[in-house]
Amino acid sequence: MHVTTGTLATANGRKYLQQMCKHFAHEGEVAFSETEGSYRFDMGTAYLTADDAGLTVRFELHNDDAFEAAQHVIDSHLERFAFREGFEHMDWDWTPPPARRSVARFAADTLRARAPRLHAGLRSLANKVR
User: Fold this and answer.
1) Are 7 and 16 in contact (CB under 8 A)?
2) What are phi and psi of 36, to 5 degrees?
3) How confident is the model at residue 101, as a pLDDT?
4) What is the pLDDT of residues 70-86, one digit of tens each?
5) Structure letter (DSSP) for residue 97
6) 2-96 belongs to which homologous superfamily?
7) What DSSP state is assigned to residue 128?
8) Per-residue model confidence (pLDDT) at position 99
9) How far are the Cα atoms of 2, 3, 11, 34 from residue 44, in angstroms, in the given order?
10) Rounded CA separation 31/107 (Å)
11) Domain boundaries defined on the chain
């Protein structure tokens, strides 16, 4: 098992935990309370905990190729939920070297940055095909 853990110092950790879990609930099985939550992604399981000091996400991944995707899925959702705090990314304990970035991930990141509406439309279409 491969693990990566991200932390965010914020007074709104419980709020963000609940927002993320409610959001992910429409895509799969989620379990959460005010201070803990979990969601099983294809790449592994995310365990979320929150307290007065912040939010912590611990990802248990099936393989080491999923670190970047796991970190991205959490960071991209928190960008929307924590925008008032100027959120950019969690402090992750493991970051893959740039050379490990796949061509597909690079293409997706580039498309998301340069054409976010097109990226969102393609993602929506891909989810319907599944």
Assistant:
1) no
2) -145, 150
3) 62
4) 899 999 999 889 888 88
5) -
6) Alpha-D-phosphohexomutase, C-terminal domain (3.30.310.50)
7) H
8) 55
9) 9, 9, 27, 22
10) 33
11) 2-96, 97-130
